[in-house]
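Data deposition worksheet. Section B asks for the primary sequence of the deposited chain exactly as it was used as input, without tags or linkers unless they were present during the calculation. Section C holds the resulting structure in token form. Section D is free text for depositor observations; keep each observation to a single sentence. Incomplete worksheets are returned to the depositor.
Section A, Depositor: J.P.
Section B:
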Amino acid sequence: MPPSVTPDAVRAEDRTLIERYLRVLEVERKLSMHTVTSYRRELLTLAALVRAPDAGSRAAADLTVVNNVQIRRYAAQLHGRGLSGRSIARALSAWRTFYHWLTLQDQCAANPVLDVRAPRSGKRLPKALPVEQAVALVAARGSSDDPDEQVAEARDAAIRELFYSSGLRLSELIGLDVAWTSGAAYRPAGWLDLAGAEVAVTGKGGKQRHVPVGQAALDALRAWLVLRERWLRPELAEGARALFIGRRGARISASVIQTRLKAQARLLGIPANVHPHVLRHSFASHVLQSSGDLRAVQELLGHSSISSTQVYTSLDFQRLAAVYDSAHPRAKKP
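Section C:
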């Protein structure tokens, strides 16, 4: 729940309606839990705005009778709270698809968000590490004398290598199983194929893709799989399937990966806010710099649209511009 939304700020009826819609996203559209959580946050914010609009405005009876003028007012309130155009656009997108669903359910006469647009904001470029820093980060190996920490260090090294080798999203990496398994009640979200030197992952929208894994990552994964046996708990079926697990034998959490990756970057003196997506951006930028093949990078990243991948051409141009400015004798500014 958003920090600004208290438990009593949303009507019970509105909360029930939101959860019904989120169930549709999860079951029918097969969106990831991360995406569903994001939708929940945006829709609960809307429900709170509906219940307590700004002073002088009449509150809507419930979510199903909100009109276009009120939606514009709610967007303005978000802007007044300091949210960026990008954040407001994300909220409006969630609201728009929610009301589209309501109209299909005959619970809303028309979609009040259809022609509402967020204020324009500058386009943010993804942050990629220089090649030297990326290689140093993923190639780092631990030196602890503690046996338990040695297992953690081997796991972390395999995680870093795999992020940079294959450009995975955090949720995709967490969802990986040791190998393909299936059953009446279980279908894997992703799995490692050591013999084929690839991973199969399920990305946004339930789209599955197969991504190659480089030799350095394969070596790190093999080293981790040997030590992984020490943490396995046979009674934890989910942990037994998971490629990456924690000390208690359960599938590793996002927070553990984020915290330990950031700590390793600090240890190496890398002056950047390093998180898993930075390694994904670095993978995409460095492959594009070397190959110039935008379509191949699109496929590797699992982007449904080439426009999502084209942002990396801007990064490549920035790199070339920096080289030009530093090397050309007539490029230097007085």
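Section D:
The chain has a mean pLDDT of 86.
The longest strand covers residues 198-202.
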